[in-house]
Amino acid sequence: MPTSLNLAVIPGDGIGPEVIAEALKVLRAAVDSDVDVAATEYPFGAGHFLETGRILDDADLDALKQHDAILLGAVGGDPRDPRLKGGIIERGLLLKLRFALDHYVNLRPTMLFPSVESPLANPGHVDFVVVREGTEGPYVGNGGAIRVGTPAEVANEISVNTAFGVERLVRFGFETASSRPAKKLTLVHKTNVLVFAGSLWQRTVDRVALEYPDVAVDYLHIDAVTIFLVTNPGRFDTIVTDNLFGDIITDLAAAISGGIGLAASGNINPDGTFPSMFEPVHGSAPDIAGQQKADPTAAILSVALLLEHIGQTDASARVSAAVSADLAARGSTPRSTAQIGDAIAASLTKN
Amino acid sequence: MPTSLNLAVIPGDGIGPEVIAEALKVLRAAVDSDVDVAATEYPFGAGHFLETGRILDDADLDALKQHDAILLGAVGGDPRDPRLKGGIIERGLLLKLRFALDHYVNLRPTMLFPSVESPLANPGHVDFVVVREGTEGPYVGNGGAIRVGTPAEVANEISVNTAFGVERLVRFGFETASSRPAKKLTLVHKTNVLVFAGSLWQRTVDRVALEYPDVAVDYLHIDAVTIFLVTNPGRFDTIVTDNLFGDIITDLAAAISGGIGLAASGNINPDGTFPSMFEPVHGSAPDIAGQQKADPTAAILSVALLLEHIGQTDASARVSAAVSADLAARGSTPRSTAQIGDAIAASLTKN
Ligand SMILES: CC(C)[C@H](C(=O)O)[C@@H](O)C(=O)O
Ligand SMILES: CC(C)[C@H](C(=O)O)[C@@H](O)C(=O)O
Prior knowledge:
Two copies of one chain form a homodimer. Chain A is built from eleven helices and twelve strands.
């Protein structure tokens, strides 16, 4: 267990800096004197790009690679700004980090805390984790177009899936499933239409499953999953899926469990070759930025994932428990971003 | 308005024949003596394939093309049957029909009938229509794989999007939106990641929008749509989207509005070059087949779409109204498939 943490912090845009301030506060309170936290801030984001014309270059990547882990708030500016068209920040920064740092596991736990309201009338017990592939699929950027702007335009997008990429993700999925009480893994794909990729995913799951006889395995098409997520989310334990399907179902999963204000994620390089990156699932929400209206809970739960990743299991569990207690104690009076962070940090110090 | 209807009927597998029997009953009751309905049955489906080795050949297609419209129940056998692996029936029959008959509009209305329970605690007023592209996207079957079964396997799937295909779909979407009271069109895509296809879709919508100044237009990423579908489905009126995104959100839309037992769809060739095909969104449900347990409502609502398509607007409205009344009158005692069909057909005859 490391006793020092050399953390890169990318607060980003909009509400990013506000939620990151609270996340860091909680991180320091959770590890107290056990871990020496050194946080280096990086200015990357839409704002930085608009000021300097730079998104993320090789030198920036080299600097980030020196860190033990990365904590990211949210990146992205006003979606109507023509200078930010075509997801230039999302792809040039967020996806570039995921690919360059080989974050092949995008880990997104979904938990409906007892005190949190769901939009579902009868959500039941919701506690599952989505193990989303992070470096392949239609996210690889291998599309292209010809005759752009003419009536004869053709625009293609290519989903690339490799045995190498699918197997390492599937193995992580089985490790995750076998460490959980329910020990159930659901592969999500669209094997009846995307037959080549689907076959690779299905064969890989079938093969790796033989090594995990204690894990129950099933399969659902992506369309059917959306039905179960609103009618019986309790049926899920560990979902293993590709980059795009994972993107879609984790937003839905967040919605049924209280909203993206509570959804945390880890972009993980399990091999430890590169630093992993932890970020709330929510975006930069420019409309409420700078007003202390953002809920820092997702960022704080991302800190719990970070602590777990660096082996600080006990501190991680204490952060999750503190969040759970704070959610249970929430009244109808809205608190500021800092008030929520302060309350959670204070409860950790007391323990 | 045609006074005769030369209908092809593909009852299919599982519960298909049961729900189709009721749909035909209601169709005949609705048009009474105004339209002379000739129904020709075709045996296509998983059962037919397992018996004869044939799915759908050119002669079959030629025969189907002679009809005014097609009514399909559900196709697909036991998913664990190795002879049906890889979506062979779905692709060889359902998708083959959609592509060969140029069903470029896959029309899926979503309506929460007043008496129907939603899994959402506060669904609000739900009444929108998804205009899903049916002949392009990742459904084109242009994927491929190399070194299959080895650690060096690469499996690609290609999403093909053409100006031709996107524009005709988008135009249909604007026509649909402008005919509806709310007059609002939402493009759903993932333009920040699938930049080539996304740009084509966005540019096409922007351009066609100029011809429909009365239609309000917005855009949502596919992941964000899943959130709104469970938190505020009332925000939607007409959704325009690609083949795969449409597949995913229409299952979710069905789930929030009472389940796929109520969801109808039309695979439409608006040009009239080929017969359009109407089918419930649900599958063949082999587990309850032959037990008169299936709800024929989705098939009956597909008949309403068929009637609308052939210009029998009044009969179509009466079928929808009869379904709505039947849903409102449903008690807790389950009725058989035929009892539901009989009740709806009888209410149409009485009027
Ligand atoms: C911003 C976007 C590129 C990103 C994604 O699609 O992965 C986001 O939606 C997410 O889920 O982290
Ligand atoms: C059966 C399958 C190929 C089909 C699709 O993906 O379009 C179905 O899910 C649907 O929505 O009609």
